[in-house]
Amino acid sequence: MPTLTINGKEITVDPGTTVLRAAAMLGIDIPHFCYHPALSVPANCRMCLVEIEKARKLEPSCYAKVGEGMVVHTESPKVIAARRAVLEFILVNHPVDCPICDQAGECKLQDYYVAYDSQPSRVAVPKVGKAKAYPIGPRVVFDGERCILCTRCVRFCDEITGTSELTVAERGDHSEIRTFPGKELDNPYSMNVTDICPVGALTTRDFRFKCRVWLMSSTDSICTGCAKGCNVHLEHFQGEAQRYRPRFNPEVNEYWMCDAGRMSYLELHADRLPSLRVLEDSELSWPRAARKVAALLGEKATGEGVAFVASAQSSCEGLMAGREFVRTMLDDAPVFWTGRPDGDGDAFLIRADKNPNRAGLAGIFGVEVLAQDAHRLLQELERGAIRVLYMMDSTLPFTSDEMKRFRAAVEKLELFVLQAPRRGGLDDLADVLLPSTTHAEQDGSFVNEDGLLQSFWAAYRPRTQALADWEVFVRLARGADRELSFSDFESLHGALHAEQGAAQDAGE
Amino acid sequence: MSTHNVTVVERPRRNLWVQSYLPEVAKGLAITSRQFFKNLLTGSDIQTVQYPEVKRDYPLRYRGLHRLTYRDDGQVRCVACMCCSTICPANCIHITAAEHEDTSIEKYPAEFVIDELRCIVCGLCVEACPCDAIRMDSGIHAHPFYERDKAFLNKDYLLDLGGPSTAVQGGVLGSRSAR
Ligand code: SF4
Ligand code: SF4
Ligand code: SF4
Ligand code: SF4
Ligand code: FES
């Protein structure tokens, strides 16, 4: 194991480690553009040059392997001068259009310019013009002038997706990223290139001119697009989600996420249930509504013909509370489950199961519940076996035809309680509407397809009267002067962890 | 025991001449009338101006109503970078960015509204603008508004107050000497 000294600090690393990684282990950040930990190393940008004693010239630290007794300087005058020169060279033809660039504020070129260059341009010849605002793919916009030709995007398409749409065309200062003739940058993961592009050459069409990055707050969250549960940064401004960005998790999604999942943030504000309603009364506060609903349930939801629908879209905490709610308030009614219908999956991230928490649902209500899906529910409804229906989500896996049948069946119910974040085309039929929060407005957790329990956190407050699922159940129980075995999130989350831990121990 | 330093002031003795006030009133009237006729006939001593018919020139750096400068072809110079609305301590600039069909412009403000009632006239927006698109040198001071929404100055209003910018788009080539 070689031991080397970087900026006077000693470290021992595995042979074959690069100087850049060794420095990172010491907490020393070496500026770099073309290096990305998940991609091959072309060492073409020269931003990461460092001084290695006894070497004849500066070496690219992203490529140079450590050696025994190496002495490295990453902030020596020679290195700083080289960085400045590299930046000046990159900026020769750069348009410096930061004011209109969506990357401004999270741009490596901007950061390094301020840190190392900060000199006015010395170039007195016109700049080379290239493609501006070019739609290189359906979801990605390309700006040739801002590109620093680091080839991260090219390598992503070659090495991660294997789709190879991109290449570098032309030569010298006319070099430009292009798609191969007849191709466009259109693969299920294409928007990842906008994250790895260190500058604003590749940006997403969706986020274009939407919000300045420095205005947004970021909350750690989980994508709800499928059962993979990719970790994301949920970025929001003034209580409104602006975008998802993948969050590094080596056990789940590494640095990536799919385009469909990235765009699923749009559902967070769409079609929301506006307010509480109990029968005709829609000017209600939660305590009053809870008493009224509890009375209705006490009157009608006893004996045969009561059904509860749990959702694979809900958090584990909400489902745990729901399980207890069924026991205490619904007389142990039979449980069905709902969620989005299965779709296409692939061998990389995208899963056919489009629900974030089917595994969590099965863990909490028992795997038997999975046999009782929404189609079974429809059969039971049409058979007239159900009088009272309590649904904790409005997502249904139905075709439009099945939806018509479902609506017709639901209309005949004695009591239909809908607790959901979204209308889902059912709000007009429900006798009771209880708005609940999306995963962006509550703390909670999902279990992904691989059995990993992952937490997410509330990013902003709901704009409506919505409450987290578990809180709705607690309030309804209180409305009937009963208590569930928990009354706050912490105790519920603790119970969930205890249960999950026990399940895992039993499984091992 | 402490000593007190007390000065005893004797009350002025007022006789009937002083007590009647009349001579002093006459004196005052005389000064006022003298000034009145002097101003009326020569106008040489007047300190005030006949606002709003007459206005004083404001100094060049006086911060008045905002204006938006325009490009050579009359389009708004602002590129909706949000630097001004970010720095504004009163949070009173509201911009909606949009895509311009000319790719050499790309981004422009579809809406640009300044709430002049909230503005604290600090001038930070002008300092922050990288494009010389917003200025406060219109020489018009914020006037009172009878209705609140009249104080939301929109893009058209601000452009009407504007003029061409003195800066050159993209800088002047070769204007910086090589160092
Ligand atoms: S578009 Fe971005 S990622 Fe691709 S080569 Fe240019 S700078 Fe690098
Ligand atoms: S693979 Fe699944 S979890 Fe990951 S981003 Fe796509 S939809 Fe979301
Ligand atoms: S002058 Fe100050 S308060 Fe007024 S708009 Fe500009 S930055 Fe805001
Ligand atoms: S700082 Fe200047 S260019 Fe940017 S939004 Fe404000 S006025 Fe427009
Ligand atoms: S990061 Fe090392 S050469 Fe680009």
What can be said about this structure in brief?
The complex is a heterodimer of chains A (508) and B (179). Chain A is an alpha/beta fold and 508 residues long.
Any overview of this molecule?
The complex is a heterodimer of chains A (508) and B (179). Chain A has 3 domains: 3-90, Ubiquitin-like (UB roll), CATH 3.10.20.740; 125-269, Alpha-Beta Plaits (2-Layer Sandwich); 277-507, Rossmann fold, CATH 3.40.50. Chain A contains 13 helices and 21 strands. Chain A has helices at 19-25, 77-90, 108-117, 152-160, 192-196, 259-263, 286-300, 316-329, 358-365, 374-383, 400-411, 469-479, 489-507; strands at residues 3-6, 9-12, 49-52, 59-60, 71-73, 134-135, 140-142, 166-169, 176-179, 202-204, 217-222, 231-237, 240-246, 277-278, 306-311, 335-338, 388-391, 415-420, 432-435, 444-447, 453-456. In chain A, strand 3 and strand 4 (59-60) form a beta hairpin. In chain A, helix 7 packs across helix 12. By secondary structure, chain B is an alpha+beta fold. Chain B folds into 2 domains: 14-48; 67-161, Alpha-Beta Plaits (2-Layer Sandwich). In chain B, the strands form 2 sheets. In chain B, strands 2-3-5 form a 3-stranded antiparallel sheet. In chain B, strand 2 (93-99) and strand 3 form a beta hairpin. The N and C termini of chain B lie far apart (82 Å). Bound molecules: iron/sulfur cluster (4 copies) and FE2/S2 (inorganic) cluster.
List key phrases describing it:
heterodimer, A: 508 residues, alpha/beta, Ubiquitin-like (UB roll), Alpha-Beta Plaits, Rossmann fold, 3 domains, six-stranded mixed sheet, five-stranded mixed sheet, elongated, B: 179 residues, alpha+beta, three-stranded antiparallel sheet, two-stranded antiparallel ribbon, 5 helices, 5 strands, binds iron/sulfur cluster, binds FE2/S2 (inorganic) cluster
